[in-house]
Structures are given as C-alpha cells and as structure tokens.
Amino acid sequence: MTPTHTPWIGVDWGTTHRRGYALAADGSCTTEASDDQGALTTRGRHAESLAAWLPTLGASADGTDCQVLMSGMVGSAFGWQEAPYVGPEVPLEALPQHLVHISGHPQRYIVPGYCVRDATGQPDVMRGEETQLLGAVAMGLRDGWFVLPGTHSKWVLLRDGRVEQLRTYMTGELFALLSTNGTLAAAAQPAGTEPLWSQAAFADGVAAGAPGALAHQLFACRARVVTGTMPASQALGYLSGLLIGSELQDVLQDLDTSNSSQFHLIGSPALAEAYQVAARQLGSALTLLSPRDVILSGFHYIQTHKA
Fold it and tell me: In three state form, how does the secondary structure of 18-36 look?
C-alpha cells in the first residue's frame, strides 16, 4: 500500500511512552498511534526507532515526505539530541523560532522545554508540557494557572502567554514507589488480598495533606493501619488523597482562589477526576482541558508558524 502523504507529524515522546499524530495542512489529525518505545527505552537508537514507526503514521519509511516535530524527553540528556531549555523571557508563541534541528536528519525538530527560577533562584524545569501549554494559548487561554498531573505534576502560571511561574511535584512517582515498596506498601497490601479504592479514605487523605512535614504525614498512613484506625484496604486511597491534597494545598495557600475559572487542568480523565475531587473538597475548582486537543493545537501552531 502506498502511504498517504503526511506533511507533518507531531510526536509526544516521553520517558517510557510516545504518541504520534499525523497532521494535514489544516492541522486536522489524520492518523495517530502510540507505543511503549519511550525516549529511555530507545536510547541510542532513536533515529532507527522513529523510521520503523513512521509508516504506522502514514509516512514513508525514510520519512522524506514529512516534517517531524518532537516534544518531551526526546530532547533530554538521554534523548535523541539534547535541546537546551529556554527561559521565561521566551513567550510560548515564540517556540517555533526556537526549535532544535537534529543534526544529520533533515526535517526533524525538537521543541525545547523551559527552565524557570523562583524568587530564591531555585530552578524548575519541564519538557513536553510546553507544547500542551502553547496549544492552550493558541486556543485563547493566555492567563491563569494550569496543572498537568502525572508522574511529575506541573503547575504553571501563564501571564499573556508567558511562563511566569513553574512548580513541579513528584506526586505520581511517590505514589508509585510508596504503594509498591517499603513499609507503606506492606501495610496497604496484606498478602493474598487485593487493595480496594475508598473515596472516603481519599477524602480523609486530602484533608490530612496540609502543607508541612509530608514525611511525617506519610508515616501516619501506616500508623492508621497497624493501630486498626483504618482498614488496610483503604490505605491506597488515603495515600493518594494525602499526596494530591498536599500538592494542591501547597499551591493554593499562595493563591487567590476567589476566581476558580483561573485554574485549568490538562490530564487523563481518571487522574483529572482525582484532582478535581480534591480541589472541590478544598474549596476550589479545576476546569478540564483535553490533553489530545491541546497538544494537537500546539503542534498545529508550530506547523503554521515555523520559520
């Protein structure tokens, strides 16, 4: 079968997974695909991996019939080619002028991430989320806080399309580690049982997740189980609520939450629901944006504004 001509392909290439979108000239998505060939998995063979994948997205194997835009960890130190971070002085809408061309590979580009320092000079970084945020800006959402939950949850404040603040929370990674290893995992999952999710335990965890000594609060999860205060089957729900609640309360304590419309959430439905439930419990609200819609919008903006 002769592959359909695909002028542009956008690839969200994370650490463990990647998703590709074939874009027509008008930005509509004609084909999409995903797999588990993340930037770390394909380390040292990114070019070969992409070439083998392109036909899945309607492009030729040699890729000469399309331009490929890549965002995410493919631009990290263990990615295909390191793309230096840009700073907050670069508006999101200027990203098309800061693409990093992959040496020796015509029509292959990486979208750079951002490095933002807080008032004390502490740096924070993101890769991949900038393309989603650019898409939100292209959709007319130029101001306010955006939360992008995941392994490393990002909170980003935009002012007129510029990244003004950036905060990262290792919420997802901590949950994965604590729920599978160590004393909390042992308490949460007694041998021969399957953990059950408890909304009431989740709500209790959110309430307990006040800013402060998280390490102490985490041990309280185990203490509740071993003293019989909480069934072991509710420990994972409590742990999730504790971690998400701690993240939300740390951010919200510094913000004026009187205008809930300023908070936007870009995330998968299941994870987004957990954050929305926690936010409502804390007296705020998060407006959901589709991750697919915003990243397609971001890729299309670059497609139409690349020099």
Answer: EEEEEECCCCCEEEEEEEC
Delimit the domains of the chain by residue range: 8-112, 171-289
Please give the pLDDT value at position 254: 74
**Superfamily classification of domain 8-112:** 2-keto-3-deoxy-galactonokinase, substrate binding domain (3.30.420.300)
Q: Across all residues in the chain, what is the average pLDDT?
A: 90
| Per-residue model confidence as pLDDT tens digits over 281-297 | 998 899 999 999 999 99
Beta bridge partners of 158: 144, 163
Token pair in block for residue 134: 């650019």
User: What CA–CA distance (Å, rounded) separates 214 from 195?
Assistant: 23
Output phi, psi for 149, to 5 deg: -75, 155
Domain 171-289 has CATH 3.30.420.310: yes
CB contact at 8 A, 247 and 271: no
Q: What are the φ and ψ backbone dihedral angles of 241, each rounded to 5 degrees?
A: -65, -40
Q: Distance between CA 146 and CA 289 in Å, rounded?
A: 10
Residue 238: closest CA among 212, 201, 289, 264: 201
The Cα 117–Cα 124 span in angstroms is: 6
Amino acid in position 31: T
**Nearest CA among 44, 48, 46, 63 for reference residue 3:** 63
Query: Residue 176: is its pLDDT beyond 60?
Result: yes
The residue written with tokens 């965890």 in the block is 205
Q: What is the predicted pLDDT for the residue at 165?
A: 94
Backbone angles phi, psi at 113, to 5 degrees: -90, -170
The strand pair at 108-110 and 100-101 is best described as antiparallel
- Range 16-38 burial, b when 16+ CB lie within 10 A, else e: eebbbbbbbeebeeebbeeeebb
